[in-house]
Amino acid sequence: REIRLDSVSFTYPDKTAPALDGISLTLRAGETVAFVGVNGSGKSTCSKLIAGLYDPSAGSVSWNGTDARDLDPVSLQQRVAVVLQDPVHYPFTALANITVSRGSLTESVPEEAHAAAVASGADTVIAGLPGTWEALLSKRFAGGQELSAGQWAKIAVARGLYKGAPVLLLDEPTASMDPRAEHAVYQAVLRGIRRPGQITVLISHRLASVVECDKIVVFDGGKIIESGPHQELMDRQGEYAQMFALQAAGYQSTPTGAEEA
Q1: Quick check: is 260 in a domain?
Q2: Residue at 184 is within a domain
Q3: Where is the secretion signal located (predicted)?
Q4: How far is it, in rounded angstroms, from Cα 84 to Cα 80?
């Protein structure tokens, strides 16, 4: 199973400059792939084309050799789990907020929902709610609970994991989490809380979270400028290596006066 982007370009209706400009990329079953780059570089637009939310202005996106535009839209929806930075807050119970990703409010597999919640860290959020899994997550109802942005992010990641789709797209869903929580979520995704053979795409500005991905794709100005595993990109000393070094320096700064001690 593979997804292939062939010379794909995309321009938003209200823009003249393309958000994506002639990119080609292949995603294979079982791969974990990170999309990195500055804001506006094309990462999120690319993920939306993969998910079938947009059609390319030029080029093609194909699934196993079939153009995505020829696939049934409902079938394509079922193949992709998308977790966004600003997820949907359903006025449902904590359990239903996770299991709704499979398209039903009445059928669920609690054991799988719990495993997804543990992976995302949502289990501790739910355990602290009055009513735990049956707590209503909306202040519009008597006794309903409201969550913080970081807590909703953990629920949303669990929702994406529970769906078990062939493709999992995580578009900065952990931006509202602290680095330790984000790292824990990505480690869970990278180390097996995924459907076998699943294609996983992680979009993050925190490069330390994606070093274990099979492939890291670097976007700039709507183009792919580098692609490869972490160590290979570091050895090239290109854009990725520079971005990684800048972030690492922020964690390794020497406290004032330390050198004189």
Answers
A1: no
A2: yes
A3: none
A4: 13
